[in-house]
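Check this:
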Amino acid sequence: MALIMKYIDSISRYMDSHSDSRTKGWPMMSSPFPTLAVCLTYVYLVKVLGPRLMENRKPLNLQNTLVMYNAIQVVFSAWLFYEIGISGWLTGHYSFRCQPVDYSNNPRTLRMVHACWWYYFSKFTEFMDTIFFVLRKKSSQVTTLHVIHHGCMPMSVWFGVKFTPGGHSTFFGLLNTFVHIVMYTYYMFSAMGPQYQKYLWWKKYLTTLQMVQFILIMVHAFQLLFIDCNYPKAFVWWIGMHAVMFFFLFNEFYKAAYRSRMMKKNGALANGHAKPNGYCKSINAHDDLAMPQTTEATATATATPASKANGSSTPLSNGHANGVENVYKQVANGSAHKGANGGLSNGYATKLLDDASHELKQRKTPK
């Protein structure tokens, strides 16, 4: 144990000798190990301890808490975006091609250094995203991607604040805080209830926005490998590879969450299976009679279990009508739905019965 502590102390002293003196003595900046300990505790809490504690408990209703939390995150992210932007990127003082770290005590430079530390702090507040998932028993949301992303970010940003608080790498923070403004705005409205769902049609574009963010970070970082710029190459690789890793992780998530869902949807439509939606469409008896006749036995054999269970009088979705006998039988048995869902009202059902009977007699009468 003493040997381990000695090793840790030597690492801390080495880092202090090469770190930015302006952040010396700031909270969590003396050594990487407190940050590492918090990150590991987070992973253990959301993957092991939290699910175990919630296993036999009901999910917590945190609607009001979530709305407030996400609103705070929107404001916090907007403030960070403003601070990072006003300290260089949005005022023309920073170059998108090459921006070395300014280690002076210029007020604008110190403002950027403080913004970097607060950006580092924000990575801890984002742990609450996952903790809320656990408390609400949304285990499907606690994915490997989600935990890796949140668990790695504080450690990654710590190195930036410790050694290069400012300069080229802060472009990462500028983009990331903008994305978080959009992301937490979505989460806030989503937490407000179902009545706001119609305004959230742009959900799938959040993942696309994340991936565009990482592409821009990759290009912005790796360009320094081909030009002469007084910026540490180690941090170029650190930031660039970080963006590469998360781009592919988010890309896999996008394909799994959206493309496969669209394929399943298209496959269901192509197969023509009736969906058990619990209501029946209004049908035109004359249109059905114009289609090729299908016997009751054939209709029963080809109908899906869902179409039997929901009492629907909708024709088979492959385009073949059940036939007049089937319509006659369903209406007579009262299986047609009533109401505004497109079902058959009582008056219309009676009329349909008469029309169907008349058409059937005409078809069966030899010419």
